[in-house]
Design goal:
alpha+beta; Split_barrel_FMN-bd; FMN binding; Pnp Oxidase, Chain A; 17% helix; 5 helices
């Protein structure tokens, strides 16, 4: 089968691509609005962009031409925290995807503990073992959309927090203790499965 996105319904494109590009890491993004209300939401359109200097990106859909609270908050404050999702917090992560009014604090809704960041205002999720404090450096609204498209946000990582339990010597990550969770399609997620190594020739 061959598919031209110009001739497909948006729902079909979504199903094909989110079922194809897997597994996807989950950026659990915490922000704060102008009134100091916390916001927390998961995004699987998320990844690392580079390490010199360190940057990450995530993209937030704009269903029905409407911004999510996360997008509004980042565009206002220019700050966000990436909290990594693990097996231990996957249920709470799912709860923070609920559609709630802007004045509702997702930390409270999901029974999570907010802790202060060091360099920015958004709070971190205490129950997550890794947090990346970020400052917005660029954003881009996808063009040619029919239902609102999405906005890509790029942040520079200005502070990194790691629980000692997920660290090994020489700054390596202990995967057995980290236990990250990835997004698949629909309601499906994945844990780390069988691992293998291939050495590069150079």
């Amino acid at each position: 089968m061959q598919f031209d996105p110009e001739n497909l319904e948006q729902s079909a494109i979504y199903k094909l691509l989110t079922g194809t590009i897997i597994p996807r890491p989950i950026g659990w993004i915490s922000t704060v609005d102008a009134n100091g209300v916390n916001n927390l939401a998961p995004f699987s359109y998320f990844n690392l962009l580079g390490d010199d200097p360190p940057h990450v990106m995530f993209s937030t859909r704009r269903d029905n031409n409407s911004n999510k609270d996360t997008l509004n908050n980042v565009l206002t404050t220019k700050q966000f925290v990436v909290n990594m999702v693990t097996e231990a917090v996957v249920e709470q992560m799912n709860a923070t995807s609920d559609k709630l009014p802007p004045e509702v604090d997702e930390f409270v809704h999901a029974g999570l503990t907010p802790i202060p960041s060091l360099k920015i205002k958004p709070m971190r999720v205490k129950e997550s073992p890794i947090h990346l404090e970020c400052e917005l450096v660029h954003h881009y609204f996808l063009e040619g959309h029919q239902q609102g498209g999405a906005c890509v946000l790029i942040g520079r990582v200005i502070m990194m927090h790691y629980d000692d339990a997920v660290l090994l010597d020489n700054y390596k990550i202990n995967l057995e203790n980290y236990k990250p969770v990835a997004r698949l399609a629909g309601a499906n997620y994945s844990k780390l499965g069988e691992q293998f190594a291939i050495k590069r020739n150079s």
